[in-house]
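Fold it.
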Amino acid sequence: MTTAFVLSGGASLGSIQVGMAMALADRGIVPDLIVGTSVGAINGAWLAGGRSAAGLAEVWRTLRRDDLFPTKPLLGLRAFLGKSSHFVPDTHLRATLEVHLPFGRIEDATIPFIAVTADALSGEEVLITEGNAVDAVAASASLPAIFPPARVVVSGRERLLVDGAVINNTPITTAIEAGATEVWVLSTGYSCDLVAPPRTAIAAALHAVSLMVQRRFVLELEANTYGVPIHLIPPPCPVMVSPIDFSHSGELIESAASSAHAWLDAGEPTAQMVPQVRKPD
């Protein structure tokens, strides 16, 4: 049996995945393959390097918004005026990855790892399984308009890549095609039950994307044509935290770990396998 962990995107809500991974580790559930998109690629790379989920939790507790999304008013103004393709430079993201990624090249990972990205020109899904790890993970997390596209050499060809969430936010099929016979999905969920919309442009963009991909994911799961066991760990809800707010990482980790433990104790009840998206009244 080949057990895969699939980690979706979700910006600061990636801390939820850490709590889930801790719960799985407590039960002795370990992956033979890890597939990650966006922040899921960041978390996935850490785990693929043989590092513990508990250690990843410590990293998340120290992260702040400026570590990934620094405020640059002049760049933001240039983007607004159509003179720049993005609002946030990727220098802080790459610097953070340089410090924390446990391997320099993807093929050196302890556990086979796939970073999911999208071609910025064609929209084609591009899977990275070798090469510079910082380049690959940064590309997977380069949400269009927020970050600049990343130039990465893939199979000897330079490509312009953006966030994998554009094409495949929860890459279950990617894991199955890579040989997985059992899949554990560590989804970030989304900022559900917010009482007001996010206040900043970046936060609003990230929230809109998360709502869009979450709805698609629900419909995909309802179709359930995968053919292998899929274990979707239900993310906590309500989560009244913006995807750009890193100040609640500790409590999100603890909440996700607690709810994952309860779900596992209950025997993975089917009724909770598909996260519910609230429909308009």
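Residues 116 and 127 are 5 Å apart (CA to CA).
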